[in-house]
Amino acid sequence: MNRTLLIVGAGLESIPGIILAKKLGLEVVVSDSDTNAPGIDKADYFIKASTYDVQKTLKEANKFNKYIKKIHGVMCIASDVPLTVSKTAKSLNLPYINIGSAKLASDKLAMKECFKKNGINTPWFSEVNSFDELNKIAASSEQPLIIKPNDSRGSRGVIRLIEGIDLNWAYNYAKNYSPTNRIIVESFLDGPQISTESMIINGIAYTPGFSDRNYEFIEKYSPHIIENGGQLPPKIDIDQKNEIENLIQKTADSLSIKNGVLKGDIVIHKNEPYIIEVALRLSGGYFCSHEIPLNTGVDLVGAAILQCLGEKINPDDLKPKFNKPVAQRYLFLKPGKVKCISIPQWIKDDPEVCFFENRIQVGDIIEPIENHPKRSGVVITTGKNLDTAVAKAKNVISSIEVSII
């Protein structure tokens, strides 16, 4: 009997995982509120349920399990819904992340309080319950600050409190992106930022994924904080790498993660790593599905699929086999209506262009860049060294011609 995998979320970035699961001989059912979600056509079955609606997903998954196909594993890819995955898997008597851990990962304030309680380096933070409270914090702070929703994702609602900003606007803007109307203010620590991706096996964290995050447009799109891809391997030395791995292990311990995936956002401030926040899911931006395998040869998505099916994972499979240069950049466009698009053929033919995705079509309305989902395309490249990989990625982006009216 073929085993069936439920992937919660059928967005673009779930597609590599769907395809890989089918290559592994699995049947795939996806759940999403959008009946036109692009991952649906790649899957075998579809459940209509919002990824954020725990009870609806749980109910529909159990119905599917009883009347259509037995489900053998539940996971998500690039969708930040650990509680939906955890509760659904538990209801089906399948391997699942501790529900308490999933709740912490879904609540940034609770997560950061957990870090603080366990002595884990994290930027100073505070809940903000009113504009007056934010005004007082901003007036007394000697450090740069950011404000963000407690329970959003994809940089939605994240604002840097730059000099002269309208704090009342910033407060309400961030609050509008929080389903629970809860806001965090925290220190914006200077220093290089690193994305990590780890798999926890029997309580031990293995981290094959390290990437420098690229914030070259932080002033251009200010006060919004917009990342423009990144590059692997990161420019850290072995001691810094070991410190980050130790920090990730402490973080996994504090969240009581015994088995699962942990995505980390880290800043190195004054030569010391700090956890900004973590997610208990495979990353978006094709980091897990493309960049890590290209850089290291590690199939993290495949390992995560097998783990959620209850199979034993060999830690040796998570050890990098090589360290090849990889760069990623995004396509950003000015606001307006797309009149025409021209993508040179060489982009499709160049073997060093490992992945290219155009996310727009003629007639689309391009909105101002305020968060990561507003990006219009992505490219992943390699090269003989990191500089040439980065140059290639930039060349791809600059070669795409889009007329906006």
Notes on the structure:
- The structure is a single chain.
- This protein has 405 residues and is α+β, with helices and mostly antiparallel strands.
- The chain is built from twelve helices and 19 strands.
- It has helices at 15-23, 54-67, 82-91, 99-105, 108-117, 131-140, 167-176, 238-254, 287-296, 300-308, 345-349, 386-399; strands at 4-8, 27-32, 45-48, 73-76, 125-128, 145-149, 159-160, 183-187, 193-201, 204-213, 230-232, 260-269, 272-279, 326-331, 336-342, 353-358, 365-366, 377-382, 401-404.
- The strands form four sheets. Strands 13-12-9-10-11-14-18-16 form an eight-stranded antiparallel β-sheet, sandwiched between helices.
- α2 (54-67) packs parallel to α3 (82-91) and α3 packs antiparallel against α4 (99-105).
- The radius of gyration is 21 Å and the shape is globular.
- 45% of the residues are buried.
- The model has no long low-confidence stretch (mean pLDDT 95).
What portion of residues is helical? 25-40%
- Low-pLDDT stretches are none
What is the average of the pLDDT values?
Answer: 95
Radius of gyration, taken over Cα atoms and rounded to an integer in Å: 21 Å
Helix/strand/pairing category: alpha+beta
Give the overall shape, derived from the CA principal axes: globular
Largest sheet: 8 strands, antiparallel
Work out the helix count. 12
Strand percentage, roughly? Answer: 25-35%
Number of strands: 19
Query: How widely separated are the two ends?
Result: 54 Å
Order of strands, widest sheet: 13-12-9-10-11-14-18-16
